[in-house]
């Protein structure tokens, strides 16, 4: 079981879906730029609200 914050949300509740973050990353970069999966995962992890 994941730890909850004061209002009862888990860490998973405070983040955007992975597919949404992947789409945002792709839309923000030029079409000829690729981002490694590890880099995408790192960016997603950085965007989790604590």
Compile the SSE list and pairings.
Blueprint: H1 18-28, H2 37-46
Helix pairs in contact: 1-2
Organism: Castilleja foliolosa
InterPro entries: CBFA_NFYB_domain (IPR003958), Dr1-like (IPR044255), Histone-fold (IPR009072)
Pfam families: CBFD_NFYB_HMF
The count of DSSP E runs of length 2 or more, i.e. the number of strands, is: 0
- Globally, the shape reads globular
Q: Could you report the average pLDDT, rounded to the nearest whole number?
A: 78
Q: Characterize the largest beta sheet: strand count, sense, and whether it forms a barrel.
A: none
| Broad structural category | mainly alpha
Helix percentage range: 40-55%
Q: What is the end-to-end distance? A: 17 Å
Low-confidence stretches: none
How many distinct folded domains? 1
Radius of gyration (CA) equals 13 Å
Order of helices and strands: HH
The number of helical segments is 2
Would you give an account of this structure?
This protein has 50 residues and is an all-alpha fold. The protein has one domain. It is 42% helix and 0% strand. It is built from two helices and no strands. α1 crosses α2 (37-46). It is globular.
Keywords:
single chain; 50 residues; mainly alpha; globular; Histone-fold; CBFA_NFYB_domain
